[in-house]
């Protein structure tokens, strides 16, 4: 799965698997009596399942077969969960008419590039692999600009804020927590020289962005942010 995703992101696309669809045209397989004579039948989409991971192994972009419990796939899975969480937060925010929804969509696209880099372990990557899946510092700097822009509009932070402030804000806080977990999965890969350091920087900055954005969403919706109150003994 991850190798196919990296291939698509790297611009190589996906080839139809050899199977019924791949053998279309041989012995008339895949054709229909309803197909007009002399016209090829409509192209079919590749099957979503490949069965290649049934034994507990999966492939990286470099072609390595690794156990699914490998820390590369842990990091890829956490990044995928993060994109899903941000997608949910974006839907809630869209319902409220927030203008930052476009930024969240861009972040999800950047996370696909993060995954492409993670799926290309540097220890086995050739130069062609690295060129296709490199991750620059530019997205990190863009996040910093967004953070500064929203921070200037927020009241000073004087207490520990609990995830709250309406559905948009709470979903963004949840995304922030998932982002922290993804970062914890990625850092060991960076330290081992398997992933680009800018990937870890991006996730670190992204969690800050999501925190600031959660506060901004609560402010724009007029929702109260719950703060930590020490329980009485």
User: Could you say how many structural domains there are in total?
Assistant: 1
Order of helices and strands: HEEHHHHHH
> Which percent range fits the helix content?
40-55%
Beta percentage is: under 5%
Biased composition (Polar residues): 52-62
Region (Disordered): 13-65
Pfam families: Cob_adeno_trans
Family: Belongs to the Cob(I)alamin adenosyltransferase family.
Commentary on this structure:
The chain has one domain: Cobalamin adenosyltransferase-like (Hypothetical Protein Ta1238, Chain: A, Up-down Bundle). A hairpin with a 5-residue loop joins β1 and β2. The longest helix has 25 residues. It is mostly helical and 233 residues long. The protein has a two-stranded antiparallel sheet. Helix content is 52%, strand content 3%. α2 packs antiparallel against α6 and α6 packs antiparallel against α7. It is built from seven helices and two strands. It is globular, with a radius of gyration of 22 Å.
Which short descriptors sum up this protein?
nucleotide-binding; 2 strands; two-stranded antiparallel sheet; 233 residues; 3% strand; Hypothetical Protein Ta1238, Chain: A
